[in-house]
Amino acid sequence: EPEVTQTPSHQVTQMGQEVILRCVPISNHLYFYWYRQILGQKVEFLVSFYNNEISEKSEIFDDQFSVERPDGSNFTLKIRSTKLEDSAMYFCARESVNTGELFFGEGSRLTVL
Amino acid sequence: EDKVVQSPLSLVVHEGDTVTLNCSYEVTNFRSLLWYKQEKKAPTFLFMLTSSGIEKKSGRLSSILDKKELFSILNITATQTGDSAVYLCAPQRGGYNKLIFGAGTRLAVHP
User: Fold this and answer.
1) Are residues B96 and A91, on separate chains, in Cβ contact within 8 Å?
2) Who wins on pLDDT, B96 or B88?
3) Domain segments of chain B: what residues?
4) In chain B, which residues have their Cβ closer than 8 Å to the Cβ of A40?
5) How many helices (H) and strands (E) does chain A have?
């Protein structure tokens, strides 16, 4: 059973459209992260979210991006107006409170046409 | 600027061989170093190393950290075809625990 569940597994969208990627942690945790991986490139940090607030964000995480935890369970990443270069795998990750180990979800593949 | 260098970039071995993967890093406010295995999709957690010189083991995999020389190694003994993957090294910064990933070592194990 995965540590976190991500939906959708794959989304295809037109440039300029808004997308929402969702992450459902199996158990209750305080620290969550979004990372992305463009095909053939490194895994890159986007944002960390602690206690329902953004704690750190990268320079990639500009005004087009936002994160929310709307119902205390789901954790969403919204891209307001997608660009071709947003095409990537987006991974949600949660940190174990006890050990600090970081576990990744299966990822959401975003394809922007 | 934070820097993570993994070597070799790729490696081809035969089943039964032993491999050593290297990771050197320069990371501000270093907290720990994590190793992941990435096959088709998501990175799967292997080890988290916080202290120098203490080897962590899981089956045929082991890893150790040297905080003075700023590197870590991942060893895989008696390799199997199922070990074929990209192995990612990710030092973690303290504070909000951000991971900085290396480019990975692509390991191919042939029968």
Assistant:
1) no
2) B88
3) 3-110
4) none
5) 0, 11
> Which chain A residues are Cβ-neighbours of B91 within 8 angstroms?
none
Phi (first) and psi of residue A40, to 5 degrees:
85, 5
Beta-carbon separation of A43 and B88 below 8 A: yes
Q: How far is Cα A87 from Cα A90, in angstroms, rounded to an integer?
A: 9
Give me the pLDDT at residue A29, please.
65
> A19-47, pLDDT tens digit by residue?
999 998 766 667 889 999 999 999 999 99
B-chain CB neighbours of A33 within 8 Å are 98-99
Give me A48's structure tokens: 């960390």
Cis peptide before B111 (omega within 30 of 0): no
Are B43 and A43 inside 8 Å of each other by CB? yes
- For the domain with range B3-110, which CATH number is right: 3.40.630.30, 3.30.1330.30, 3.40.50.2300, 2.60.40.10? 2.60.40.10
Q: Do residue A100 and residue B97 have CB atoms under 8 angstroms apart?
A: yes
Q: Which domains does chain A have, with CATH numbers?
A: 4-112 (2.60.40.10)
Span B17-67, pLDDT tens digits: 999 999 999 999 999 999 999 998 899 999 999 999 999 999 999 999 999
